[in-house]
Specification:
81% of the residues lie in helices and 0% in strands. The chain is mostly helical and 74 residues long. Helix 1 (6-23) runs antiparallel to helix 2 (27-51).
Length: 74
């Protein structure tokens, strides 16, 4: 198992634990685990988007400016 996939497996385990506990009737525990899952997944997506410029708004703006510059040369 690669260390890159550990975060994916943690999130998958939290999601399944939340769903199973809510279905079995442990609503408070299921909602708590679901809240933890939501927080971790949103923060993971945010940090990966900060790390990679292609997922951020500045990439679209920079791409637009580059296309404008290239079109003026033609």
């Amino acid at each position: 198992m690669k260390s890159k996939n550990i975060l994916f497996y943690i999130l998958l385990t939290l999601l399944l634990t939340s769903v199973v506990s809510i279905v079995m009737g442990y609503h408070n525990f299921g909602f708590a685990v679901g809240f933890l899952f939501a927080f971790l997944s949103l923060s993971t997506g945010y940090f990966y988007s900060m790390k990679n410029r292609e997922y951020m708004h500045q990439h679209y703006h920079a791409d637009y400016v580059d296309r404008l510059k290239n079109n003026k040369k033609i």
